[in-house]
Amino acid sequence: MSQFNLIRILHDRGLISHITNEDNLNKLIQNNSISLYCGFDPTEESLHIGHLLPLITLKRFQMAGHKPIVLIGGATSLIGDPSFKKKEREFNSSNNVNIWTKKISKQISCFLDFNCSENSALLLNNNTWFKKINILSFLRKVGKYFSINTMINRSAVKQRISRTDQGISFTEFSYNLLQAYDFFILHKEHQVHLQIGGADQWGNISSGMHLVNRKTKKKVYGLTIPLLIQSNGMKFGKTESGTIWLDAKKTSPYKFYQFWINIEDSQIYYFLKMFTFVSLLEINIREKNRYINNQIINDKIFLARNMTRLVHGEEQLLAAERITEFLFLKKINHITKSDLEQLQQDGIPAIKIHKVKDLQEALVLSSLSMSRTQAKKMIFANSISINTQKINKNHIFENQDKLFGKFTLLSRGKKNHCLLCW
């Protein structure tokens, strides 16, 4: 069916961590249109950039003619996946899960085509089948196919069992069976042959393949994608610090744009391959020429533009670029009120100002200076700016200093800023 080797492309782009029976899976998707799925538990109101890789991988399968199914874990999110978590998650209320399901479903709809005939994407919720099954029936239909010995030897479980301070509850321990049952139901009702997920899902995916095989004697497949790791070595997750959310109200488009601008040089071409649909040929040429005329900086901008456009659209990309020019290139003419509201949200430090005597006091309140004496020295050293304009004497704030009657950008040098919000 496919005119190109999708598995080879995924390998070349660094999108495969684990894969089962690669040759057989490759033959299957080369000659047939298959259904595949990936699950997302609504344990927060937004997805984050760690979810982009499975979504983009689903999109690649859809572009190759296959049918992607997104499974929202309306039931499993009430339990919480323990995979490689240091401690048990706090339980979420059913009401929150329902609200978060709607928000996450809306986000997902932006990445896949749900109206393209035979391989249109499908959005399902596992609460549909779990609310119909009782515990005795589940244990008889599912539990009997799993060995405790095998389950406790899975790395995600073993890691928790070995901890004397936390351990693992039976509730969390059962999550593996719930996800396995998802795969069985989707195979039975939607002919799903492949489950994809992050590398930390390998144990859960393996259990699903095992259950399908035991109950149907059919062979299904699993594929995992490398986890996106932060600079501190932690994975990007909803419960981790430093999360970059896809919801503009939780992470502004400007901050999202700046995340990609500020990645390490060694990650640029790795991320271009994984996250974008730019051809491998173009990426390889860019990497080869990275040290010519500061090309590496241009490639970071290229990546940031691609990712911000993908997640937030062209309009918000332009806003992020306006804010960047305002802060770093001192271009103030095209800045908008909504741009400054993004800065107030999370772009730079911001403080609310009611009354302030002068510039020296503002520098101290904004933590750009430790004292009025130091602030005075900075001002006379010509290192302080108000709304991108250099100030070399003490200054009393006036209405003309308040952009849109509300905001004043206070800067020390090129990189230290604070937004005064009147």
From TrEMBL:
<comment type="function">
    <text>Catalyzes the attachment of tyrosine to tRNA(Tyr) in a two-step reaction: tyrosine is first activated by ATP to form Tyr-AMP and then transferred to the acceptor end of tRNA(Tyr).</text>
</comment>
<dbReference type="InterPro" id="IPR036986">
    <property type="entry name" value="S4_RNA-bd_sf"/>
</dbReference>
<comment type="similarity">
    <text>Belongs to the class-I aminoacyl-tRNA synthetase family. TyrS type 1 subfamily.</text>
</comment>
<keyword id="KW-0963">Cytoplasm</keyword>
<feature type="short sequence motif" description="'KMSKS' region">
    <location>
        <begin position="235"/>
        <end position="239"/>
    </location>
</feature>
<dbReference type="Pfam" id="PF22421">
    <property type="entry name" value="SYY_C-terminal"/>
</dbReference>
<keyword id="KW-0067">ATP-binding</keyword>
<dbReference type="InterPro" id="IPR002305">
    <property type="entry name" value="aa-tRNA-synth_Ic"/>
</dbReference>
<feature type="binding site">
    <location>
        <position position="37"/>
    </location>
    <ligand>
        <name>L-tyrosine</name>
    </ligand>
</feature>
<feature type="short sequence motif" description="'HIGH' region">
    <location>
        <begin position="42"/>
        <end position="51"/>
    </location>
</feature>
<feature type="binding site">
    <location>
        <position position="179"/>
    </location>
    <ligand>
        <name>L-tyrosine</name>
    </ligand>
</feature>
<keyword id="KW-0030">Aminoacyl-tRNA synthetase</keyword>
<comment type="subunit">
    <text>Homodimer.</text>
</comment>
<feature type="binding site">
    <location>
        <position position="238"/>
    </location>
    <ligand>
        <name>ATP</name>
    </ligand>
</feature>
<dbReference type="GO" id="GO:0005829">
    <property type="term" value="C:cytosol"/>
</dbReference>
<dbReference type="InterPro" id="IPR014729">
    <property type="entry name" value="Rossmann-like_a/b/a_fold"/>
</dbReference>
<dbReference type="GO" id="GO:0006437">
    <property type="term" value="P:tyrosyl-tRNA aminoacylation"/>
</dbReference>
<dbReference type="GO" id="GO:0042803">
    <property type="term" value="F:protein homodimerization activity"/>
</dbReference>
<dbReference type="InterPro" id="IPR054608">
    <property type="entry name" value="SYY-like_C"/>
</dbReference>
<dbReference type="GO" id="GO:0005524">
    <property type="term" value="F:ATP binding"/>
</dbReference>
<keyword id="KW-0436">Ligase</keyword>
<protein>
    <recommendedName>
        <fullName>Tyrosine--tRNA ligase</fullName>
        <ecNumber>6.1.1.1</ecNumber>
    </recommendedName>
</protein>
<dbReference type="InterPro" id="IPR024107">
    <property type="entry name" value="Tyr-tRNA-ligase_bac_1"/>
</dbReference>
<keyword id="KW-0547">Nucleotide-binding</keyword>
<dbReference type="InterPro" id="IPR002307">
    <property type="entry name" value="Tyr-tRNA-ligase"/>
</dbReference>
<keyword id="KW-0694">RNA-binding</keyword>
<dbReference type="GO" id="GO:0003723">
    <property type="term" value="F:RNA binding"/>
</dbReference>
<feature type="binding site">
    <location>
        <position position="175"/>
    </location>
    <ligand>
        <name>L-tyrosine</name>
    </ligand>
</feature>
<dbReference type="GO" id="GO:0004831">
    <property type="term" value="F:tyrosine-tRNA ligase activity"/>
</dbReference>
<dbReference type="InterPro" id="IPR024088">
    <property type="entry name" value="Tyr-tRNA-ligase_bac-type"/>
</dbReference>
<feature type="domain" description="Tyrosine--tRNA ligase SYY-like C-terminal">
    <location>
        <begin position="339"/>
        <end position="420"/>
    </location>
</feature>
<keyword id="KW-0648">Protein biosynthesis</keyword>
<dbReference type="Pfam" id="PF00579">
    <property type="entry name" value="tRNA-synt_1b"/>
</dbReference>
